[in-house]
Amino acid sequence: xxxxxxxxxxxxxxxxxxxxxxxxxxxxxxxxxxxxxxxxxxxxxxxxxxxxxxxxxxxxxxxxxxxxxxxxxxxxxxxxxxxxxxxxxxxxxxxxxxxxxxxxxxxxxxxxxxxxxxxxxxxxxxxxxxxxxxxxxxxxxxxxxxxxxxxxxxxxxxxxxxxxxxxxxxxxxxxxxxxxxxxxxxxxxxxxxxxxxxxxxxxxxxxxxxxxxxxxx
Length: 217
Ligand code: AP5
Ligand code: MG
Fold this sequence. Notes:
This protein is α/β, with parallel strands linked by helices. The protein has helices spanning 13-24, 31-41, 44-55, 61-72, 90-102, 117-125, 165-179, 181-188, 201-216, and strands spanning 2-6, 28-30, 81-84, 109-114, 127-130, 136-138, 157-158, 192-196. It has a domain at 2-26 and 79-116 and 168-216: P-loop containing nucleotide triphosphate hydrolases (Rossmann fold). The two termini are 12 Å apart.
């Protein structure tokens, strides 16, 4: 099953992707996570991406497309993948189509998680992530037992650099300008499924499962 998770910053793409990995046993490919890891390790890719990410801007298409092409060719993607945060521009979507054609694969579902802007800001400003295992929390909506430590592995929790209010505003603007046009793009291809992103994490997951499994039969 080959899936794209579309949606603005803070819509819950990462949260839902983790739940989907557990149910469908296919990998999550988060370009944001790959880029953050490269920044942390100070690799050449990380050096290139850092200044864009800090400002809440998109990293240039050619950089991100290369990463995704390489990752999709890994053996764990043979039976499917969940793209989280890619594509994010029309040129990225067109490049993805070419990559998949080369691999003789097609997309099964593009799930667009819809959440209003005020809720997005609330979710992003309260997000905390585990440095070791990547588990996600929210200080109000899904707080960890100890505010500084991960319930799952005991690792330290941190706040993402780009989750400051000013950077969040820029990310939302970039989303409207560059990523929202993908909704129409995938609608025209008949692949788009809208998911109401308001509710508890498990309610939203149930909606995703129903949508995917209804369309698979
Ligand atoms: P990326 O890491 O992809 O960030 P994003 O798209 O801005 O999305 P987020 O990860 O912030 O949100 P999410 O939808 O995953 O929500 P989450 O599940 O965490 O990209 C970061 C940067 O990298 C970009 O700005 C860009 O610079 C660069 N980049 C990445 N991909 C790129 C690309 N393809 N091209 C160019 N540049 C690229 O949830 C958020 C919070 O809400 C959490 O605290 C969570 O616990 C909470 N929450 C989740 N669900 C619920 C719920 N139902 N109710 C209440 N709270 C909830
Ligand atoms: Mg994410």
